[in-house]
């Protein structure tokens, strides 16, 4: 089994592989970095702010 963060990484990499555009790859890497290094409570706060 993959850890949740690993499955998100592989998903993001799959998505970026479909778009050979370099900007999309950089964006995917930035998202991965954000997901991995942002503390979970802070992530939840940000998600609540974005979706409300």
Shape summary: globular
What's the average pLDDT? Answer: 71
> What percentage of residues falls in helices of 4 or more residues?
over 70%
Cα-to-Cα separation, first versus last residue:
33 Å
Total E-strand runs: 0
Question: How many H/I helices?
Answer: 3
Radius of gyration: 12 Å
Topology as a string of helices (H) and strands (E): HHH
The total tally of domains equals: 1
Poorly predicted regions are none
Largest sheet: none
Question: What does this entry look like structurally?
Answer:
With 52 residues, the protein is mostly helical. It has one domain. Helix content is 81%, strand content 0%. The protein is built from three helices and no strands. α1 (4-18) packs antiparallel against α2 (22-37). The longest helix has 16 residues, at 22-37. It is globular and about 30 Å long. The mean pLDDT is 71.
Précis, in short:
The chain is mostly helical and 52 residues long. It contains three helices and no strands.
Entry keywords:
52 residues; mainly alpha; 3 helices; 81% helix; 0% strand; globular
Compile the SSE list and pairings:
Elements: H1 4-18, H2 22-37, H3 40-50
Helix pairs in contact: 1-2
């Amino acid at each position: 089994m993959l850890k949740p963060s690993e499955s998100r990484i592989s998903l993001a990499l799959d998505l970026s592989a479909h778009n050979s555009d370099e900007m999309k790859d950089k964006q995917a890497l930035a998202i991965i970095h954000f997901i991995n290094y942002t503390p979970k409570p802070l992530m939840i706060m940000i998600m609540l702010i974005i979706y409300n």
